């Protein structure tokens, strides 16, 4: 039985499901089936990206769900992102059209700048997705596109109907304030790493004050990065095992994952968890039907260490760390 989830109204009037499905690290071989099953479970938002390398397969899952009458295109909220190698203004629209073709849809509901960094252009016919390295190996070569010129190109994408909303991902407060000085269309959504070890309350407040919705990724903190061979500090227990999270889970008869997702959604942040397990698919979607106490919310927020996992330097990519 499908589970209904609430919507967030964006600053342009469009409505975005508060709980979606993130496609990062979803295996190509199972992606189409995973997306199909998620739609059948009740997911309506799918958060993809060029860099994930699975947009064709995700689109196949969507097409099958539509063909089988589970949903219509208008029922879905499909998200994608502009990779760093395509920041040059003249490359933005062509790559958006390629990504739309990969998905098999006519428009994105939301399209982000993935990272606030320009890399040298790599043509799709040379290598796709291009990744961080211009040579496909280890060489970083920065591009010359300014964030302003890239944002202006995204505004044109929205004006042409290729994306209903546009946003930014992995921007800190300074870059957000700078964007406000040149944006004709204000971003609808800011996507950031967000979990109890990285609360970023000042950034959340800035976004809210300016009418920008926030989506948090990696809601389970270090859990998402174990398979990336990231070494965790001894004083950084997995959030699923943290006494504060386990205590709240036991108090409400929920899983630690549900508590972490509810902590975010109860504070107005949208979430995009993923799972290959049907049981966890349903649990992750059902995270707005209970409320944590104010004391529990504050105790979980108090775990903040300003600890960021998704920084390129953590993967040996000498680019920068986010502010």
UniProtKB/TrEMBL annotation:
One GO MF term: D-xylose reductase (NADPH) activity
GO biological process: D-xylose catabolic process
Active site, renumbered: 52 (proton donor)
Binding site for substrate: 114
PROSITE patterns, sorted: ALDOKETO_REDUCTASE_1, ALDOKETO_REDUCTASE_2, ALDOKETO_REDUCTASE_3
Pathway: Carbohydrate metabolism; D-xylose degradation
Keywords: Carbohydrate metabolism, NAD, Oxidoreductase, Xylose metabolism
Protein name (database record): Aldo/keto reductase
């Amino acid at each position: 039985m499908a589970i209904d989830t609430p919507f967030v109204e964006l600053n342009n009037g469009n409505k975005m499901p508060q709980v979606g499905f993130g496609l990062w690290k979803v295996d190509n071989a199972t992606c189409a089936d995973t997306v199909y099953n998620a739609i059948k479970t009740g997911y309506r938002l799918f958060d993809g990206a060029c860099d994930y390398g699975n947009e064709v397969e995700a689109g196949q899952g969507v097409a099958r769900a539509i063909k089988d009458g589970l949903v219509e295109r208008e029922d879905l909220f499909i998200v994608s992102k502009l990779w760093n190698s395509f920041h040059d203004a003249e490359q933005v629209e062509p790559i958006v059209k390629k990504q739309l073709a990969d998905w098999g849809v006519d428009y994105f509901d939301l399209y982000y700048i993935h990272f606030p960094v320009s890399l040298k252009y790599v043509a799709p016919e040379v290598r796709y997705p291009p990744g961080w390295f211009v040579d496909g190996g280890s060489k970083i070569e920065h591009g010359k596109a300014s964030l302003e010129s890239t944002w202006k190109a995204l505004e044109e994408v929205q004006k042409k109907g290729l994306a209903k909303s546009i946003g930014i991902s992995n921007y800190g407060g300074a870059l957000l304030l700078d964007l406000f000085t040149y944006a004709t269309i204000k971003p609808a959504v800011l996507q950031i790493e967000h979990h109890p070890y990285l609360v970023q309350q000042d950034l959340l407040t800035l976004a809210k004050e300016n009418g920008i919705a926030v989506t948090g990724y990696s809601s389970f903190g270090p859990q998402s990065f174990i398979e990336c061979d990231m070494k965790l500090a001894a004083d950084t227990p997995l959030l699923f095992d943290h006494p504060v999270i386990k205590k709240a889970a036991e108090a409400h008869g929920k899983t630690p994952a549900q508590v972490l997702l509810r902590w975010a959604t109860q504070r107005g942040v949208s979430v995009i968890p993923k799972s290959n397990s049907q049981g966890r698919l349903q649990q992750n979607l059902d995270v707005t039907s209970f409320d944590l106490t104010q004391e529990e919310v504050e105790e979980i927020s108090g775990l903040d260490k300003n600890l960021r996992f998704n920084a390129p330097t953590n993967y040996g990519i000498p680019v920068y760390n986010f502010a």
